[in-house]
Amino acid sequence: MKVVGRFAPTPSGRMHLGNAFAYLLAWLSARSEGGEVVLRMEDLDTLRCSEEYAEGIRQDLLWLGLEWDRETPPQRQRTEAYEAALEMLRSKANVFPCWCTRGSLNLVNAPHASDGHPIHPAACRLRSEEERRKMKGTPAWRLEAPDLTISFTDGVYGPYTENLKTACGDFVLRRADGVFVYQLAVVVDDGAAGVTQVVRGCDLLSSTPRQLYLCRLLGLPEPSYWHVPMLTDREGRKLSKRDAAMDLCRLRKDHRPEDLIGLLAFRSGLIDRQAPISAEELLREFSWEKLKREDIVLC
Ligand SMILES: [Zn+2]
Q1: Element (H or E) spanning 278, and its range?
Q2: CB 180 within 8 A of CB 79
Q3: Other Cβ atoms within 10 Å of 13 Cβ, number
Q4: Is 273 left (phi over 0), alpha (psi -120 to 50) or beta?
Q5: I need a surface site. Which of 79, 204, 216, 272 has the fewest CB within 10 A?
Q6: Ligand 1 centroid to residue 219 C-alpha, Å
Q7: DSSP letters of 93-130?
Q8: Residue 19 in 3-state DSSP?
Q9: Ligand 1 centroid distance, CA of 177 (Å)
Q10: How many C-beta atoms surround the C-beta of residue 58 within 10 A?
Q11: CA 127 / ligand 1 centre spacing (Å)
């Protein structure tokens, strides 16, 4: 089976060095197996995302030497596909209306899930039809988390196991404002594009069981997952979009692509001394085995 990897940037700003690192690995991984790469703009947040940023990201990828084979439709054009998926989920599992707000969820003294969010209270799910009719305002739609343990082997971090009910809880598929959530969109889009390999930052490791569960309900093939370490500063703070100095827009003024790739490759263990190297040259010596598993201190 042909490997299909992907770049899935959110065009709500310029590309950040942390994203560049994940895309570099996604590209190396797919290309080293003779596979292809698809590009998809994850612009569910239509207020913050723009075509101008999307174009900036395409230019940054090309500048880094990370070309792709095809671009699939951006998420803002995929509402019909997400609606169809939601209908299918309704027929296979318990999708229910939820009027909880972030404030009300924090007030409920519910156990907190592994990533810090409060577990959704069962009382909301157990409302009768009559009680639901009396509720005011548009609800969000949630999927009941079954007492099901999902296990998978991450290509970088190894075995990962989570019980959906106790560690995650019922999760939102469509928000009250009508916007579909990332968890659903990403599964539907990867399935439609034939993605076989998901390489992304390890901050998304804990969403993988939810996505695998959605894959199963929707009858989609499960991709392999490779979560990559985060870039941090010396104090261990994760580099984020807030650090304007780490924007490709800024970095491109003072550096060559091979300098940045050389730095990322050296600090992450892909090469054993710091030297300029192009993506194409790095491809010849790429192996997942060389990648460090701990956070990568960049500056
Ligand atoms: Zn609720």
Answers
A1: none
A2: yes
A3: 19
A4: beta
A5: 272
A6: 26
A7: S-EEEE---HHHHHHS-PPBPTTSPBPPPHHHHT--HH
A8: helix
A9: 15
A10: 18
A11: 10
Tell me the two tokens of residue 283.
């491809």
Alpha helix segments (H runs only) across the chain:
17-32, 51-64, 79-92, 102-107, 122-125, 129-134, 182-193, 208-218, 248-254, 257-267, 279-285
Residues in Cβ contact with 161 at an 8 Å cutoff, skipping those fewer than 6 apart: 149, 150, 151
Strand partners, 205: none
Cα separation, 268 vs 258, whole angstroms: 15
Q: Determine the distance separating the centroid of ligand 1 and the alpha carbon of 116, expressed in angstroms.
A: 17
> What's this model's pTM, rounded to 2 decimal places?
0.94
Strand, coil or helix: 25: helix
Distance 215 CA to ligand 1 centre (A): 23
Q: Could you read off the pLDDT of 23-36 as tens digits, one per residue? A: 999 999 999 999 99
CB 37 within 8 A of CB 5: yes
Tens of pLDDT, residues 258-295: 999 999 999 999 999 999 999 999 999 999 999 999 99
In the chain the first and final C-alpha atoms are separated, in Å, by 40
Which tokens is 130 given?
């009559």
Question: Contact at 8 Å (CB) between 223 and 192?
Answer: no
DSSP track, 31-49: HHTT-EEEE------TTT-
